[in-house]
Specification:
0% strand, 97 residues, single chain, elongated, mainly alpha
Length: 97
């Protein structure tokens, strides 16, 4: 493994895990009609690298999947992060070699 990728992969993994967990927490709170996590928090987390966890959590927990405005921002964030990851690969090489 290309060790130059380590910080990037750790960052995306940890922020993604946090996004996934927060989607599950927000879904549980929605079911209980309790205080919810603001969408702005999900948007911020997605832009900081947790977009893939938020997307996965949305699908797994069936949460906010029909809210077009929410999903549009998260998908745009995913495209942004894919661009970042491709640029990092171009600069430092493949994470696997």
């Amino acid at each position: 493994m290309n060790l130059a990728w380590t910080p990037v992969l750790v960052w995306v993994s940890v922020s993604g895990l946090l996004g996934f967990i927060l989607m599950g927490v927000d879904k549980a709170r929605a079911v209980d009609r309790a205080w919810r996590i603001p969408e702005a928090s999900f948007f911020t987390l997605a832009l900081l690298g947790g977009t893939f966890g938020v997307l996965l959590g949305s699908g797994v927990f069936h949460h906010k999947t029909l809210k077009t405005s929410f999903m549009s921002v998260i998908i745009l964030s995913a495209v942004f992060w894919l661009g970042i990851l491709f640029e990092v690969q171009r600069m430092i090489g493949s994470p696997f070699g």
